[in-house]
Amino acid sequence: MHKAIFELEPLTCPSCINNIEDTLNATKGIYSANVSFSSKMVETQFDETKIKAKEIEGVIRDLGYPVLSTK
């Protein structure tokens, strides 16, 4: 299991958190996704044989949330 943290631009509403978490948690290969509203971070745990961090970043971007950095 791998871990990646994505830094986002400031989120504007709590429904943004639900949108990101629900989509990522439903994505094949992702075990968990948690968004911190105050720190603008999305922490994920995933199976790298099924999905790569760059692909997760793409899912977040496709939802309309720019990713500033990945750790």
TrEMBL record:
| Xref: CDD domains | HMA
Which InterPro entries does the UniProt record give?
A: Heavy-metal-associated_CS, HMA_dom, HMA_dom_sf
Superkingdom of source: Bacteria
Query: Does Endoplasmic reticulum count among this protein's keywords?
Result: no
Which residue numbers delimit the HMA domain? Answer: 2-68
User: SUPFAM superfamilies from the xrefs?
Assistant: HMA, heavy metal-associated domain
| Keywords on record | Metal-binding
Coiled coil (residue ranges) = none
Q: What is this protein called?
A: Heavy metal-binding protein
Originating organism: Oceanobacillus caeni
The uppermost taxa in this organism's lineage are:
Bacteria, Bacillati, Bacillota, Bacilli, Bacillales
